[in-house]
Specification:
Order of helices and strands: EHHHEHHHEEEHHEHEEEHEE
Distance between the termini: 29 Å
Radius of gyration: 18 Å
Largest sheet: 5 strands, mixed
Shape: globular
Mean pLDDT: 95
Number of helices: 10
Low-confidence stretches: none
Strand content: 5-15%
Strand order of the largest sheet: 4-3-1-6-7
Structural class: alpha/beta
Helix content: 25-40%
Number of strands: 11
């Protein structure tokens, strides 16, 4: 079983990292190419390209100006400890043991506009580049064109190495579209998390993102290999609903009063 999640816009490069273990991104050469393109842009052009404020554009202009290889713990940080945000609040990386991190390194992947596909302990330097960004390169008019089938091939190879099993999609639609789901040589399972709101169950952004992180942590801590184990997920008040589910889309429902 391989699990994919999205990155986060918010980053932490200040708090202590609880491990000395690290690895290097598989697609570092592609990240260098993208960064070289981004270094040519002024803060104003970055603001327009990424639809961000002038302040954020200035921050990322300096990030890319200072971005350099090779990566080391002195100038970069392990991805799982760099990203913060809703998914990573749910993942609660501070509670992952050394054995959990080892399992995550083998079974969890983070999709990224700049780095393509990151293992949890892959070093990364700070950046902002959402997968949906219309950055033009020699490969096409956006990042989906740039990455092409590279991420799909990498995941297919990883799934084959692990002896098959499903790909559990806990990423957003924006990021999972870069995987080319129709070319994945495995069953794809995309859990959905819904909260009771205004008379019906709905997917609510913040809660759903956090629940994706919680399920990723559930898979890691329980060393899940059989997708049937996903149905046992019962965290923060969510419960599996067989009536609302299909094998490819298990649905987990919650009323806010059911939260612990």
């Amino acid at each position: 079983m391989i699990v994919v999640i999205s990155p986060a816009k918010s980053l932490d490069y200040e708090s202590p990292v609880p491990t000395e273990r690290f690895s290097q991104p598989v697609f570092i050469d592609e990240a260098v190419r993208l960064t070289n393109s981004l270094k040519k842009l002024t803060p104003g052009k970055l603001s327009k390209l990424m639809h961000i404020s002038d302040k954020l554009a200035e921050l990322n202009y300096h990030r890319y100006a200072n971005w350099q290889v090779p990566f080391s713990p002195a100038n970069a940080r392990q991805a799982i400890f760099a990203f913060t945000g809703d998914v990573y609040q749910g993942l609660d990386v501070g509670r992952l043991s050394a054995a959990d991190l080892k399992f995550a390194q083998e079974h969890l992947r983070i999709l990224s506009g700049l780095y393509g596909l990151l293992r949890p302990l892959d070093l990364m330097q700070p950046y902002r580049l959402e997968m949906g960004t219309g950055l033009k390169t020699r490969r096409g008019e956006n990042l989906y064109r740039f990455w092409g089938d590279r991420l799909t091939q990498e995941l297919n190879g990883l799934l084959e190495e692990r002896g098959g099993g499903p790909l559990v999609n806990l990423a957003s639609q924006e990021y999972f579209a870069a995987v080319q789901p129709g070319s994945i040589r495995a069953e794809i399972i995309s859990p959905a998390f819904k909260d009771w709101s205004n008379g019906k169950y709905r997917i609510l952004g913040f809660f759903a993102k956090k629940a994706r992180g919680e399920m990723a942590a559930f898979i890691i801590r329980n060393r899940l290999a059989d997708p049937a184990g996903l149905m046992d997920f019962a965290v923060d008040g969510y419960r599996y609903s067989e009536a609302d589910s299909t094998p490819q889309k298990p649905v987990f429902l919650r009323r806010l009063r059911d939260r612990p």
